[in-house]
Amino acid sequence: QVQLVESGGGLVQAGGSLRLSCADSRRLFSINVMGWYRQAPGKQRELVATMTSGGRTIYGDSVKGRFTISRDNAKSTVYLQMNSLKPEDTAVYYCSAVLSGPVPSGSYWGQGTQVTVSS
What we know:
The chain is an all-beta fold.
């Protein structure tokens, strides 16, 4: 129903920037919430940022003021601009999507993209 395709990860030095993109390649159904989570080795997956179709955003405390989420609803695409990157931002970043519903409903994950920040 939803196929999330991520791009934009890579290796960057501390203080640098990266931009992640995630698109629903099928675009069959309306998506309510799109966003990003991340998981570092040995740690639980944590919220980075989410945005509703109406533009409401939520950010994880550790990225506030440095990361910006944006979205193109017409393209079913979400972006994550990451500035002032720190080594502790190193993780696999996963795109997520929650359908508007009521039918179909559900949440979906992308395959993940690695972000590595060197000190």
